[in-house]
Write a structure and sequence with these properties.
21 strands; Porin; globular; nine-stranded antiparallel beta sheet; ten-stranded antiparallel beta sheet; 2 domains
Length: about 350
């Protein structure tokens, strides 16, 4: 079930610039009141692969409906980019004329509410289709006004009967039902649907760092050790050979953190490994410190070139992690999991 934001958090969000005006009914720069039927033109920093605009999904053909069960909602707080929270997904269902199956537990949904009032969405889910094959679903979305449109991207084994999902052009509507503790994702095939007609344009606030869709790259030498993680893992899930290479996903089930950051690893998320001409890791998960702070982690790159990106509360004790100047060791097998060490980058 979702939880209410703490009143102090709401004050901080309002103080970012503009949200207080939205609450009072005054116009907010960069935010438009989206309505059903409009094409959403996202900010260039979070284009969702459709910089010219995301057509209203229901102009397309229905493909499937995903109903996701929400678990815990983790309030990270106001970070340098905006107000961040992370939603756990404990499972769900897929239903459609051509696609049926289940959504596996351990999925994550990231929400970043900007100072303009817009929310940028990212969803990471593993699914099991009715034929027992595994799929990876990652979506990019934007909320403008009361409407959230998303662009789903499927990775399915080329040998699967659902391989047609690899080449489709899709858009969807995301709806959160707090009363039932579910997220509904209605997906449509918008192949051939133009980004025309009435539009709503989303503009990110100036002067704040943008979140990145792709891995962050960088160079440098290892400096002082910042902290270490002992990560516990679940059994791997293999999508198999798909449109980007071979996708192998290793669920993250927990673990411990020690050093300048001490605490636990929140169960959920995974290392979404992609094996092509080279092997690339993309681990996404959340830390909870012993003093109650949440830190978003993305550790991404080729072996020997892992660059971690952290997101912590800007006014909190771990704000130094927001600088982006860090390196990661490669995961080293340890017991039933792996050991990872994070370093300052010189």
């Amino acid at each position: 079930m979702t939880k209410s934001r703490h009143p102090l958090t709401m004050v901080l969000i309002a103080g970012l610039t503009g949200v207080l005006a939205a609450v009072s009914g005054a116009p907010v720069p960069g935010r438009a009141a989206a309505a059903s039927g409009e094409t959403t033109v996202p900010d260039a920093s979070w284009s969702c692969g459709m910089p010219a605009g995301i057509p209203w999904p229901e102009r397309g053909t229905p493909v499937l409906t995903a109903t996701l069960r929400l678990g815990a909602v983790h309030d990270v707080g106001v970070t340098p980019s905006g107000y961040r929270r992370v939603l756990d997904v404990s499972g769900g269902t897929l239903a459609g004329d051509r696609v049926t199956g289940t959504v596996l537990s351990g999925g994550l949904e990231y929400e970043l509410t900007l100072a303009t009032g817009t929310t940028e969405i990212e969803q990471l889910h593993m699914v099991r289709f009715a034929d027992n094959s595994i799929g990876y679903l990652r979506t990019c979305g934007v909320t403008a006004g009361d409407v959230t449109v998303v662009v789903p991207d499927f990775e399915v084994a080329n040998s699967s009967a659902n391989a047609w999902l690899n080449t489709g052009r899709f858009a969807g509507v995301r709806t959160v039902d707090a009363a039932s503790g579910t997220v509904r994702l209605a997906v449509y095939d918008i192949s051939g649907v133009p980004a025309d007609g009435p539009t709503v344009t989303v503009t990110d606030p100036a002067g704040v760092p943008h979140q990145s869709w792709d891995c962050v790259t960088g160079t440098g030498a290892r400096g002082a050790t910042v902290f270490s993680e002992a990560v516990t893992l679940g059994g791997s899930l293999s999508v198999g050979a798909s449109k980007r290479g071979t996708r192998n996903v290793i669920p993250i089930t927990g673990g411990t953190v020690s050093g300048r950051v001490a605490g636990t690893i929140v169960p959920g998320g995974a290392d979404y490994q992609l094996i092509g001409s080279t092997a690339r890791l993309d681990a996404r998960y959340l830390l909870r410190t012993n003093d109650g702070e949440y830190i978003v982690v993305r550790n991404c790159g080729a072996f020997g070139q892992l660059i971690p990106v952290f997101e912590a509360r800007a006014a909190g004790p771990y704000h130094f992690l927001n600088t982006g100047r860090f390196l990661s060791s490669d995961p080293q097998l340890q017991g039933g999991g792996v050991l990872i060490v994070f370093y300052e980058r010189r």
